[in-house]
Write a structure and sequence with these properties.
Layout: H1 2-5, H2 12-26, H3 29-40, E1 45-48, E2 64-68, E3 71-82, E4 89-96, E5 99-106, E6 116-122, E7 128-140, E8 144-146, H4 150-185, E9 187-188, E10 191-192, H5 197-222, H6 228-257, H7 267-278, H8 285-295
Parallel strand pairs: 1-4
Antiparallel strand pairs: 2-3, 3-7, 4-5, 5-8, 6-7, 9-10
Helix pairs in contact: 2-3, 2-4, 4-5, 4-6, 4-7, 5-6, 6-7, 6-8
């Protein structure tokens, strides 16, 4: 929440929460070494899981890994790998037969290994990301750290979703506070715009959306150690609620700021971009609404 309030764009969630959780559950010397590096601040490990045609999930996977002598050959592509240009290590999802496996490898975006193409760019919310194309990229045998990672990936995705819910709450708190302050300073018709009742009502609506988002974020975090179906329902309920609130608060904050809300010089525009991006991370609002509906259907 504090990272969201301060609009920190470092890959804390991606590296510490998502990859950190995957590595801790994987175990082994290689995973432990990278975890130590993350804790010391010398390693930035990111997950390469999303693909161009995978939609909102990580389940649709076309990247394949095949045995080749004493190593592996990875072929496929990954889209919008957040913080890849900053990474020292990649955790790659690839299909090995019928299973989804995890491969861990050292990485340098400026000097990728043969067969790996890196297209780096900035995202709308000013973070760094890259698209990766694997064309028979060779990895050593010990790069495989989890042979069947499906369950761990589902947990990591829910943990990431819960974390961005908390981050969004922090950002929304800041956005609402700045909007209220601005309404007390901006003069129109000889008086602050905050004195107009219709704008007061709008800011009350924003406050109500914020409080619902706070409760939803608590719901997600407090159920992360529950059974998988219970955890998934709580996280999807939270992500759908927070996504709706982020959209409502962000859009109304920009509107109440007028043209100032769209300028690069004013913080509100940057918060709005981050809140927009958060709605789509670890599953969009529509995806989680549909998942919640599916998980709460009566059993026959």
């Amino acid at each position: 929440e504090e990272l969201g309030r301060a609009l920190v764009i470092e890959p804390f969630i991606d590296t510490v929460i998502v990859v950190g959780g995957l590595l801790s559950r994987a175990g082994g010397d290689a995973a432990a070494s990278v975890l130590e590096g993350i804790a010391a601040g010398s390693a930035v490990a990111v997950l390469a899981a999303t693909e161009a045609d995978s939609g909102d999930g990580w389940d649709t996977l076309s990247t394949n890994a095949v045995r080749d002598g004493d190593g592996w050959l990875i072929s496929g592509s990954k889209a919008v790998v957040i913080a890849a240009p900053l990474a020292t290590h990649l955790l790659i999802t690839a299909r090995v037969g019928d299973d989804v496996a995890l491969f861990l490898t050292a990485f340098d975006a400026a000097a990728p290994p043969p067969g790996l193409t890196v297209h780096s760019y900035r995202t709308i919310d000013d973070r760094r990301a890259a698209d990766l194309m694997f064309d028979d990229v060779r990895l050593p045998a010990d790069a495989l750290i989890v042979a069947d990672a499906s369950e761990s990936l589902h947990r990591a995705r829910d943990e990431g979703a819960a974390a961005v819910c908390a981050e969004a709450v922090g950002a929304m708190r800041k956005v609402l506070a700045d909007t209220v302050d601005y309404s007390k300073q901006r003069q129109q018709f000889g008086q602050p715009i905050g004195s107009f009742q219709v704008l007061q009502h709008r800011m009350v609506d924003m406050y109500m959306e914020l409080e619902q988002a706070v409760s939803a974020a608590y719901l997600a975090v407090l159920n992360l150690d529950a059974e998988p179906d219970v955890r998934a329902r709580a996280v999807s309920a939270a992500k759908a609620t927070v996504g709706r609130s982020a959209r409502f608060i962000g859009q109304n904050a920009v509107q109440l700021h007028g043209g100032m809300g769209m300028t690069e010089e004013l913080a509100i525009g940057h918060y709005f971009k981050r809140l927009t991006a958060l709605q789509y991370e670890f599953g969009s609002t529509d995806y989680h609404r549909a998942r919640y509906a599916r998980l709460t259907q009566p059993k026959d």
